[in-house]
Description:
The protein is an alpha/beta fold.
Amino acid sequence: MPAPRSLDLTQVTEWNNGEVRRVQDSIAGEEPLEIRIGATPLAVTMRTPGHDLELAAGFLFTEGIVQRREDIRSLESVAEGTRASRGNMVVAQLAAGASYDAGQSQRNFFANSSCGVCGKATIDAVRSRLLRSPNPALRVSPDLLCRLPDNLSAAQDIFGRTGGLHAAGLFNASGELLVAREDIGRHNAVDKAIGWALREWRLPLSENILLVSGRCGFEIAQKAIVAGVPVVASVSAPSSLAVQLARELNLSLVGFLRGRRFIVYSGDARVLPDAT
């Protein structure tokens, strides 16, 4: 069985203003990824193959399984096994000092490509993690924010061919795109970006901006706060729980970032310093 791919080619039938023809089309890949700690299964998420080690690292960190880069002794993709598991499993080995409650984690996690927070046993399990407010000193100009969507869009290679993926991009305070990651699941794209930062020893992301290509739900806001991101922007709407969490912890949350317009739901001072 070939390794999972981020996109596939298929024959489709196109109807265009009354004309019908057979064409070749690109479609986004979707495969299950099982994340294990040693021999213990932790979670399964439906994802777009690619950057799987970053996805696993980001998931372990943003979900509180590990607290720092040093807690992960090794991460390995399993290249052998059954047809179902080949290329669809990442095994993490944790350092001796890492605290990990296998029973509690197995009760709390089950994720799919469209939803992450539904994989928690309760939202209270998220709130009980004693999340810290991100850097209050960062300032980002409106003009800089408005440039970010085009920069992220230019880096969405697979989306450009399939039209079927979400993206997450990490920018520095000058608006430079540091990393862009795509996935069929929006929370997976965020985990891939944060996992990249973890593996590159860049956490906390206290001087950075996270931009997501779709809506911003509660879990994306939570993951950003865990990583220390002060400003989260999305091209679509946030959810009510995302807004509530952002206001509780003074995360700057921007929605409907399109063209020369956006809405600030929380943390105005970082992005509108001159507002009264």
